[in-house]
UniProtKB/TrEMBL annotation:
Keywords: Transferase. One of its GO terms (molecular function) is transferase activity. Residues 89-213 form the GST C-terminal domain. PROSITE patterns: GST_CTER, GST_NTER. This is Glutathione S-transferase.
Amino acid sequence: MPSRFELHGFAYSGPTYKVALALSLMGEPFDYVHVNMMGGEHKQPSYLSRQRYGQVPLLVDRNNGRQLCQSAAILEYLADMTGRFGGADLDERLQAREWLYWDFDRLASPLYKVRVVKAGFRQAAPEVVEDCLNAARNALGVLDAHLAGRAWLVGEGATIADIDIYGVVTFSDQAGIDLTGYPQVEAWVRRVEALPGFEVRTDLLPMESRVAA
Ligand SMILES: N[C@@H](CCC(=O)N[C@@H](CS)C(=O)NCC(=O)O)C(=O)O
């Protein structure tokens, strides 16, 4: 039987990894469709008709035909559909959502910007890179302080907030940020990586399409 979910993405994409990791942790096999971003496939009309922002990821739910974009919204959808990682009650669910918004506001944006410049995909003035680096470091400081005395970002168990933010923090080294300066974050990273179903990005996202095993 074909798997329920079809994930369209790119191997080096943090937002694609978040969704792939969520599916893996939730025990949901998925077909993976490689989007040729280097060739501009994500800006072609056929792709734009399915993903209005012209970005990866795109998740298709074959049970109902939904075509979903924006990784944080997709994580919320998956938590709803599987009943997993959504938080124990409404308060936890709302707190998890707050972290999803915070991530894109304060952490993902500056950290990814530094990463793409360091990787040579984009160019930016040194002072812009420095600003982004400082913003990412500040955000990691906020995360570190929040994690003191707690195992997970929200409540007593892992939620989509942890999955979402792990999917950014895992790229810190590529932005030139050493996590040893953030001991609580480092310990939390190890907890996420010990969750059943955890897979590293390179195992979840190949450079070609793959049908679920
Ligand atoms: N907020 C979006 C961001 C997605 C995103 O930035 N995707 C990048 C790849 S990592 C992309 O598709 N970039 C091409 C573009 O924006 O034109 C999400 O979380 O899904």
